[in-house]
Design brief:
Largest interface: A-B, 24 and 23 residues
Strand content of chain B: over 45%
Distance between the termini of chain B: 41 Å
Order of helices and strands of chain A: EEEEEEEEEEE
Helix content of chain B: under 10%
Order of helices and strands of chain B: EEEEEEEEEEEE
Distance between the termini of chain A: 36 Å
Largest sheet of chain A: 7 strands, mixed
Radius of gyration of chain A: 13 Å
Oligomer: heterodimer
Strand content of chain A: over 45%
Radius of gyration of chain B: 14 Å
Amino acid sequence: DAGVIQSPRHEVTEMGQEVTLRCKPISGHNSLFWYRQTMMRGLELLIYFNNNVPIDDSGMPEDRFSAKMPNASFSTLKIQPSEPRDSAVYFCASSLDVGRGGGYTFGSGTRLTVV
Amino acid sequence: AQSVAQPEDQVNVAEGNPLTVKCTYSVSGNPYLFWYVQYPNRGLQFLLKYITGDNLVKGSYGFEAEFNKSQTSFHLKKPSALVSDSALYFCAVRDIRRNYGQNFVFGPGTRLSVLP
C-alpha cells in the first residue's frame, strides 16, 4: 500500500487566494482526519470523517475552511480566502476501526505558505 | 475530558545512553495509549500502542513504553539511543468509554536530540 497520499507537498499562495489540499486515504480505512500543525499550537484536529460523513468539525477555525469527502478514496480541505495566519503544515490521516484500538496512518503533509 | 501532557519540550541524551520521553494522561475510563514519531518534513509515524494486557509494550526501532495505571503514565524508553532517533515524539490517548468520536488527543510533543 502506498499509504496516505497528500498533494501538493508544498503550496505557496497569495493572501486572498483559494487553496485546495487533497488527500487519498489508505484503501479500506473508514475514518479520515485533517490536522494542522504549527510551532505555536502544535497538532490541531480540524475535522474528521467516518464512512465519508463529517462527524466533528468543531476544530475548523473559521468559515473560510471547508472539507469534503465525496467518496471513500478522496477528501479535500479548502481555504477561501486564504490568510497569512493559515500558514502551517496540514496533515491528513486515516484509520480503520479506531474503536478497537486501531491507530492512525498519517500522510506526509502539505506545507502551506500564504504570503 | 481526556488530555495528554508531555512535561518536557526537549530531551537531550548522548548516543548510547538510555532515553526516556515522558507522558502522562487523563481519561475518565480505561485508555488506549499511543506513541508517534515525526521526523523532519515527514508525517507522524506509529511507534507503539497499549490497549490491554502486558504493561510493557514493545514497538518499532527498539522503543518500548510502560503503562502505569496508578501514575497515569506511559513513558517511552529505549535502552541505547541512536543519533537517528532524533525527532519529535507525540503521545496520544483515547478514552475507550467515549463513543462520540474516533479522534485521539495528542500531546504537545517532545523534541528528542541524541548527541553523537
